[in-house]
Write a structure and sequence with these properties.
three-stranded antiparallel sheet; globular; 17% strand; alpha/beta; Dna Topoisomerase Vi A Subunit, Chain: A, domain 2; six-stranded mixed sheet; Arc Repressor Mutant, subunit A; 13 helices
């Protein structure tokens, strides 16, 4: 279906179902299984991908019927958006398809997660990303640097966006890079750390780009980073808390996520490097007094990641996991501020980048 347009792909889906009905067949959707058992790690590309296992969703099947209906309802809502050349948010799509089924007390969707999953199913069925199906997520990232872009006809200089930076849109496919003057990119999980670096004009002093999110990076951020990496050959350094969740954020950026393995080609960035905070940093900068005890969920997450195919044979990462488990504690990035308000900008990051002190 990839040779079709998104609109044609949805129309083909509808025509196939109509053809099944006319043959008195049980209307059936076929799509790849979206679970860890069907996620494959490609040693050559260093990216996660979806496997060959397929599943069916049938209308005349009590356990399938509601999800079948949700997928078709969402497909209809997306088709309407494409027809009028408009975009919508995930939340808007949820409300567009939410209704009570006539003659019942049953809602077509109870929670947004249901319509979100239906959209992901349609990505697999049509071969097009959510963004190309005219559906975007909320903006949750900021960027600053000596970069000029054109977005929706407006020329924007990331170096002149004040204290808030440029708000990264959910869909960056049509953003045009007019000028990119930077040596590298630092991506951080916390907006508070980005604000410190922006206030210190770190990006200007070090000739780099600083990007933040609020926790796990959005697809828009991941795609922006991938484009800057592939189109402008910029190395990307990841700065997160010294905990299993921070390391997972790095893992998702580098290899792709299990839940979105089908999108890894357009989102994963194989050349990203983990800058910190590492267990070695905790010792070097004497951050032990800022330890936060690991809970059972943290410990289980460390074990799970240590067993991931892309980590299990990596000695450097296995060492980090062992050090974290031995300390039975984690440390947040903000602990570095105990060494001085601008320590992260003036000392920590410049030294680590100069010494190439990162993990891969």
């Amino acid at each position: 279906m990839a040779k079709q347009s998104p609109k044609e792909a949805l129309e083909t889906l509808g025509k196939d179902l109509v053809a099944q009905i006319k043959k008195d067949e049980n209307p059936t959707l076929q799509l790849p299984v979206r679970s860890l058992s069907n996620v494959k790690f490609d040693e050559k590309t260093k990216k996660l991908g979806i496997g060959q296992k397929m599943t069916e969703r049938q209308f005349f099947n009590v356990s399938h019927a509601k999800k079948f209906l949700q997928t078709i309802d969402v497909a209809g809502a997306i088709k309407e958006l494409i027809d009028v050349d408009k975009t919508s948010t995930l939340r808007d799509v949820f409300y567009r398809v939410k209704r009570t089924i006539p003659g019942t007390k049953t809602e077509t969707v109870d929670q947004q997660t249901e319509s979100d999953k239906a959209i992901e199913d349609l990505e697999l069925i049509t071969g097009f990303s959510r963004e190309k199906l005219h559906v975007n997520a909320n903006k949750m990232g900021s960027v600053a640097g000596n970069v000029t872009v054109v977005d929706a006809g407006d020329t924007i200089n990331w170096a002149k966006m004040g204290s808030g930076g440029w708000s990264i849109p959910s869909n960056v496919e049509n953003v045009e890079f007019k000028k990119v003057d930077a040596k590298y990119i630092i991506y951080m999980e916390k907006a508070a750390v980005w604000e410190r670096l922006n206030e210190d004009k770190f990006w200007k002093k070090q000739n780099c780009i600083i990007v933040s999110s609020q926790g796990q990076s959005t697809r828009g951020i991941r795609r922006l980073l991938q484009r800057l990496s592939s189109e402008h050959k910029l190395p990307i350094y990841v700065l997160t808390d010294n905990d299993p969740w921070g390391i997972y954020i790095y893992s998702v950026l580098k290899y792709g996520s299990i839940s979105l393995a089908h999108m890894s080609e357009g989102l994963a960035i194989s050349n990203v490097k983990y800058l910190g905070v590492t267990c070695d940093d905790v010792e070097k900068y004497q951050l032990q007094r800022h330890y936060i005890a690991l809970n059972d969920k943290d410990i289980a997450r460390i074990k799970q990641m240590a067993d991931y195919e892309w980590f299990k044979d990596n000695k450097a990462w296995q060492r980090q996991f062992k050090m974290m488990k031995k300390a039975k504690a984690k440390v947040e990035i903000q602990a570095l501020s105990a060494r001085g308000i601008t320590f992260i900008s003036d000392t920590y990051l410049p030294e680590k980048i100069k010494n190439k002190d990162f993990l891969e």
